[in-house]
Amino acid sequence: MTRPSASPTRARRLLRLLLLLALVGVGGYLALRLAGDAADPQSDRFRQWWQGDDEQRQALITIQRERCDGAPFVLPADGFIGLLYGDPRGPYSAAAPHQGIDIFSPGEVGITPVYAATDGYITREASWRSALIQRVPDDPLQPGRTIWLYYAHMADRDGNSFIEPAFPPGATEVFVPQGTLLGYTGDYNGDSLRDIWVHLHFSIVLDDGRGSYTNELEFANTVDPSPYLGMSLHHACATDVPACTPDPTCTP
Ligand SMILES: [Zn+2]
Q1: Residue 246 domain flag
Q2: Under a CB-based contact definition with an 8 Å cutoff, are residues 101 and 203 in contact?
Q3: What spacing in Å lies between the alpha carbon of 84 and ligand 1's midpoint?
Q4: Do both 26 and 138 map to the same domain?
Q5: How many CA atoms lie within 13 A of 206 on its CB side?
Q6: If we measure between CA atoms, which residue out of 188, 186, 190, 196 comes closest to residue 91?
Q7: CA-CA-CA-CA torsion for 103, 109, 110, 111, nearest 10 degrees?
Q8: Per-residue pLDDT tens for 89-135?
Q9: Cα 14 to ligand 1 centroid, rounded to whole Å
Q10: What distance in angstroms lies between residue 101's CA and the mean position of ligand 1's atoms?
Q11: How far, in Å, is the centroid of ligand 1 from the Cα of 102?
Q12: Number of structural domains found in the chain
């Protein structure tokens, strides 16, 4: 007499148990995500920007066209400074957090001006549709070293550029004083299918020691823009709506 390997009832019971475990796992994960979001006021601000009416969106906007007291740079665009430096929110992560700040524009593409944060030399690689990089030969906060300022997303979804004609593709080392109009914000995201909101990505990138900039996509190659702009812009030190603060640095 042969013994059946597993009775249909036992198999069903096992399947039910596995299903239950999967449900508990997914439920737990969602609960943790929700709890995390609830504890993160910046998530509320994103919701307010996404779903709020005009007045609620306006309440999130930083307008700062002058340098903050004691800060060397001027904010390159007005808007909702939503994604801060070091933010691990998607598509970023704790291991590869956001390398700069994202300043979201309230209007359509091609309207919100982008200005040079400081004096320096603008370069636009021949293939760049939406980005500029600016060489600052003498870091005002660490004299003697070169830093680079990266401005991105100044084109529409199809790659039509909103960069000023003074900086055509291939332009190198065009000197601009602080406050020079560089272009207008857009929602270009390369060939990625991921939709992005109209914004400027701004970051401070380290020099490679050989006359060029390091890879601006690597967090380790960038520095916290907070002391340069005189605002608290590190994810770990988020304030309600960033504005000039006497001591913008904190220890994350
Ligand atoms: Zn960004």
Answers
A1: no
A2: yes
A3: 8
A4: no
A5: 11
A6: 196
A7: -70
A8: 888 999 999 999 999 999 999 999 999 999 999 999 999 999 999 99
A9: 47
A10: 5
A11: 5
A12: 2
Protein residues with C-beta less than 5 angstroms from the ion ligand 1: 102, 201
d(CA 84, CA 82): 6
Q: Is residue 187 part of a domain?
A: yes
Q: Look at 181 and 18; give whichever has higher pLDDT.
A: 181
Cα 54 from Cα 30, distance rounded (Å): 31
The number of residues in the chain equals 252
Ligand 1: centre distance to CA 24 (Å): 35
Kindly state whether residues 107 and 51 are assigned to the same domain. no
Same domain, 190 and 134: yes
Domain endpoint, select from 21, 36, 60: 60
The alpha carbon of 77 and the centre of ligand 1 are apart by a number of angstroms equal to 13
At 22-57, the pLDDT tens digits run 665 655 554 544 444 445 788 899 999 999 999 999
Residue 74 shares a structural domain with residue 47? no
For residue 133, give its domain range: 61-237
Find the 8 Cα to ligand 1 centroid distance in Å. 55
The model's pTM: 0.84
